[in-house]
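Appendix B, Record 12. Input sequence as logged:
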Amino acid sequence: MKISILVPFHNEEAFIAEAVESLKKQTYESFQAILVDNASTDNSKAAAMRAVGTDNRFIFETEQEPGIAHALNKGLARATGEWVTFLDADDYFLPERLEKAMKTAETSEADLVICRGYKVSRYGETFGESERLVFDEATFPLIMAQRNICWSMSFLTLRRDKLNTLVPFPLEYSAILDYYLILGAIAGGWRITFIDEPLVGKRHHGDNYSADEFRLMGQEIPLTVDFLERYASVGRVYSRAALRRIATRKYLRGVQYARRHGRIGDVPGFAKAFVDAGWIEPAFYVYYNAMAVLQTGGVDKFREFLERNRLAHPLYYYLEGIDCFQGGCYVEAGEVFRRAGRPFRGRFVEAGLGSSLAEAMMDRPRGMRMLKRVLNGEPGYIDALVAWQRLIGGNGVVSPTLFLREATLSELLEWVKSYLPDAKRFTYEQK
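Logged structural output:
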């Protein structure tokens, strides 16, 4: 059986020769490799041509329209194999990658074969492996609905006639085409088989298109929601609340990435359509948008936003606590922070930090003792350490944290629903 390998590249001069050499070393020799130059501005093509030499199994194409989906569509038009696989130009195949994929496909009569890979640094150092693939056809969809554990097109080998049902490759999923293909295969009832062995060197470096989690989640949320709505088997296992938590976690990954990288201006409005449709917990949307408004528009805009987006939820009370603190109403701020943290019995450590700082504005020794308890409970909590350092140094004005950690968000997410079922317990009128 002949297999076509699609190798799109854009400015991969440093790595593409290694990718080509890894194909020439394959123990399975019946392949066609289509290298698609996707608007490169460096010497990638020249490096690839030198590595190819006179090997007539390799052909070159050019696609001037930027974007991997365009490049893959151009390459697929030239593919003649019964099977199709992919190789990112900064990755490489181990010598038996094709042979083992084709043997597995033949013996299992599979439509899609998924292998594993090594994690490789920019400099070629191996520092880990992808997750083991030991799932059956019942559990694999449940895992993939939550996250893409296969995370590379270089791991996939597909039967061409099946692939034809999912192409042309969609531009709107250009950062997650591997995820798009796998979810499409599951929804289409394909036979999926795993090779529980690393057969690819997957390069990890800052230039990876897939490194931007804000971009990834912006594409992954609509793809996941579409899958969850179409694939009934997942809905028979997960409750609607569980499916909402899956989508909300992806929202959190995106906005946290944007905040960590100083892209606070990207946060307002992110994934709002899925909040409105009930797929994302509104309290987290309100929290992150409020924080973005506070940092970009100031206190007055922040207060206007809170007034327009009232919720009976601890995260909303936390925001009201910040509002009180910003206005110098430290007694009220401390009460609201405590009210926000009470349902979590100390696990909402940001609320504890806010209470400590509010107290420190009125009674420094007592506030320091409260802050010390927060630090003893969470020794690595950076915001609390910074607050401690500033208070010790004599800075009397320290704002509560403006960043919820991933661990805290996970705990909050496990606890909350769209709204608290006993919301009346937490009703608070701002003084």
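Residues 212-309 form one domain.
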